[in-house]
Zinc-type alcohol dehydrogenase (Zunongwangia profunda), 333 residues
Amino acid sequence: MKAIQITKYGDIKDSLKIAEIDKPEISDSEILIAVKAAAANPIDYKIVQGHLKDMLKLDLPSGIGYDVSGVVVEIGNEVKDFKVGDEIFSRVPQEYMGTVAEFVAVDSKVVAHKPENVTFEKSASLPLTGLTAIQALEKVNLKKDDRILIHAGSGGVGSFAIQYAKSKGAIVYTTTSTTNLDWVKALGADRVIDYKNEDYKEVANNLDIVFDTLGDDYTFEAFDIIKEGGRVTSIIGPPDAESAKEMGMENYQLPEKLAKLIEEKSAEYKHTWMQPNADQLKEIKAMIEDRTIRPTIDLVYSFEDAVKAYEYLATGRAQGKIIISLAETFENQ
Ligand SMILES: NC(=O)c1ccc[n+]([C@@H]2O[C@H](COP(=O)([O-])OP(=O)(O)OC[C@H]3O[C@@H](n4cnc5c(N)ncnc54)[C@H](OP(=O)(O)O)[C@@H]3O)[C@@H](O)[C@H]2O)c1
């Protein structure tokens, strides 16, 4: 079968190649999926560029991609919840990474039926970003009337998180650049801050929660704009003790500057390293089907143009999700 492979660490264009590899064989608990669409996520190009090589030990060449939507073509002997022909979506665990391929095998425990009212492309846009937003916001117990700032409302995670937070009754502030103001407002945010022309800290402060999707100084500045006892939930800042443990980091110490800020504000700081979760995928399916949340897709690339998809995503300017469609290339699969 054909697959996109990471052949070495470095420049996206030089490192990613279309390769002919063996079709996966499934074990009793696994299913084989004919991939119709995969999503590109920032973690993919960070892996290619070598930024995560100490944390994720890969044997190269390796597949790329975690998000998938497609059709079940084989099931293992113990699989009860799926049958051949089912249309599914998943964020596959690390050991199955490689969804930008004709077929991918995955443990059935991390798979759910895809939302019935949207395409494979839209379904593939949801798992990684949707699970991340849900897990990061559940960690800080987001609830009705919480005032929350969600950074990068036009990003894959931010655009899902705005809609999810509104569905929980929160009052949502978000940041984006001038180009994206209108469509981000249409996602339901109460106040969209144009970071090119406004100081977000003046507009959004005394908040219950900051959702940090940007990192660096944004993580630290979150403590300037939460109220005393407020919560900061980050997917890009330093791990907290619990997430460091999950990520296998031994003897981890919170950076001193962050520890001081947490103490000064009597704040809660949580870091999320998202985990595959079929129950939460079912929750996402329901929210798509009742139109609580709508997928936000910027561009769809063909399998042959997958490298261009990653190059575009790596500019950091994507407006929602970047999708790689395999349905046309492999229509007879
Ligand atoms: N820990 C985890 O488990 C986890 C899971 C998912 C993602 N992540 C990480 O979280 C980050 C966000 O992911 P994503 O998928 O949402 O990324 P993304 O879709 O690539 O984000 C792109 C968006 O970021 C916006 N942006 C860039 N700089 C900004 C700024 N200074 N202020 C406001 N918006 C800004 C851009 O809007 P403009 O063009 O308008 O600036 C663009 O629309 C990535 O670093 C990713 O690796 C971590």
Q: What stands out?
A: The longest helix spans residues 127-139. The pocket of NAP is lined by residues 41-43, 128-129, 132, 151-152, 154-158, 175-177, 179-180, 195, 213-214, 235-236, 272-274, 313, 316-319 (CB under 6 Å). The CA atoms of residues 301 and 324 lie 5 Å apart.
